[in-house]
Amino acid sequence: MTYLIVTFIYILILTGIIVYKSRTIKNEEDFVVAGRSVPVYLLVGTLVTTWIGSGSLFGTAGLSFQVGFAELWFSLGAWIGILAVYFIAARVRRISQYTLTDILEKRYSPLARLLGTITIIVAYLIIAGYQFKGGGRFISILTEGGISVDQGTFITFMIIIVFTALAGMVSIVSIDIFNGIIMILAVVLAVPFAISGFGGWDNVVSTINEVSPDHLSVFEGHEPMWYIGIMLPTLILLLSESSVYQKFSSAKDAKSAKKAVMGMFIGVVTIEFLMCLLAVVGFAIYAHDPRFFLEDGSVNAPMSEEIILRIGFEQLPTFIGSLLFAGGAAIILSTGNTFLMVTSTNFSRDILEKFFIKDPSEKKKLIIQRISIAILGLVAFLIMTQFEEILEMAFISYTMIGASLAPALLATFFWKRVTKQGGIASILAGMLSVILIEVLNRVYETTPVDFGIMSFPYDSKMIAIPALLASLTALVVVSLLTESTKKEIVDPFFEKD
């Protein structure tokens, strides 16, 4: 009951902040990029909690339970991506557009913007959907099964829709600094208490050595290609993370955007390493618990994704467990808010306002944005019902965004020879390759087939390799075969920061 009360009170506090902030919304710029006035400390908080969502709390934790410290390769991709983003953060803020797709249109064409919008909408709805799924599991654990996972999923869906529609980006950056602090504090405290509660680190190590020694190694137990495949999705996603770029545009200036990236790096590395460590400790704690394993001895993947919350609810002192649950609620809400916000921004600005509702007033723009949030949230909810594992949803969505957008986006800042046709071809190749692989996986789910180059069903953890190769090949080949872009279009992307 204590866990439920603490979590409920925290959500009420966040609601109060959001309702208060919603009163300051006067126009689209306030709603979409928070009036371009977000200071560094708030930007750091919102960037960290954007990345550390249900994908980390459930998907990454589940992967850590399944493979041990080798999961850090998955996180490493994001860490490298953040450092790479550091070098373009100021440029993005200086160009000062609303969204990543604005950048694609500025460098390539309206068609590139439209394709980027479609890619983002599809992939981000998958990400928003697994926030609902994660919230459902969260509420079910919190109420000890009193509310079913399906009921909890619907409750989470409704809460996130209302939070996002009320105040947009202002609500997100206003609450994320609190969310980030609570999540870091909760994980920092949870790790030592979980270890000591199991009898100390030596007992953790000896138990894992008996069951699966490879869990203690970062480099053993997998083929070299596995490590590349597991690292690529987070790397290419972060390099093309539309919500991150939108938040750069929320910064008060380019210098603030760049400082915030380094703060994000420190926060993400700290939380992800501790989450991995906590899940590995959880593997030792639950090494002989039948809930976490199937009859053949393999890991029960959906159950493994609940490891951090199970530790918080069943193994930790009430105070720390309550803090962990409050932090969990915070990151689910924050990430759901962010991805619905970015998706609705792209949908309303790049599709509705461009093709159907010409020159709407500021008031009408806000209404369109809020209605878009509700409609797209419902679509995300329906998409979510087609998947069982959050980790699978994460790999598919990360790769669709990253393989489609990262090569074309980075080329705008680092390769002057890239052309409009090359950028468009790259986006199409990345998006269609992911869709094709996923369709073939469903077709051959029960009747495996080997086509020589690839066999199906294809491991979703490796999907980034063929998708990225297709995107890069299209980018380079088509650009070299087409006429160079005019100098006046290229130069703004290469001005000194």
Brief rundown of the structure:
About 75% of the residues lie in helices and about 0% in strands. It is mainly alpha-helical. The chain has a two-stranded antiparallel ribbon with strand order 1-2.
Protein described:
With 497 residues, the chain is an all-alpha fold. The protein has a single domain, classed as Sodium/glucose cotransporter (Up-down Bundle). It has 21 helices and two strands. It has a two-stranded antiparallel sheet. The protein is globular and about 65 Å long. The relative contact order is 0.18.
Strand order of the largest sheet: 1-2
CATH architecture: Up-down Bundle
Tell me the Rg in angstroms.
22 Å
Count the domains: 1
Strand coverage percent: under 5%
Q: Label the overall shape.
A: globular
- How far is it from the N-terminal to the C-terminal residue, by CA? 53 Å
What structural category do the secondary elements indicate?
Answer: mainly alpha
CATH H-tier superfamily: Sodium/glucose cotransporter
Helix and strand element order: HHHHHHHHHHHHHHHHHHHEEHH
Number of strand elements? 2
CATH C-level: Mainly Alpha
Give the tags.
497 residues, mainly alpha, Sodium/glucose cotransporter, 2 strands, 76% helix, 1% strand, globular
Q: What's the layout of helices and strands?
A:
Layout: H1 2-22, H2 28-33, H3 40-51, H4 54-67, H5 72-86, H6 89-95, H7 100-107, H8 110-142, H9 149-197, H10 201-211, H11 224-239, H12 242-248, H13 254-285, H14 301-304, H15 307-314, H16 318-356, H17 362-384, H18 390-414, H19 420-443, E1 449-450, E2 455-456, H20 464-481, H21 487-490
Helix pairs in contact: 1-9, 1-16, 3-9, 3-12, 3-13, 3-16, 4-8, 4-13, 4-18, 5-11, 5-13, 6-13, 7-8, 8-9, 8-16, 8-17, 8-18, 8-19, 9-13, 9-16, 9-17, 10-13, 11-18, 15-16, 16-17, 18-19, 18-20, 19-20
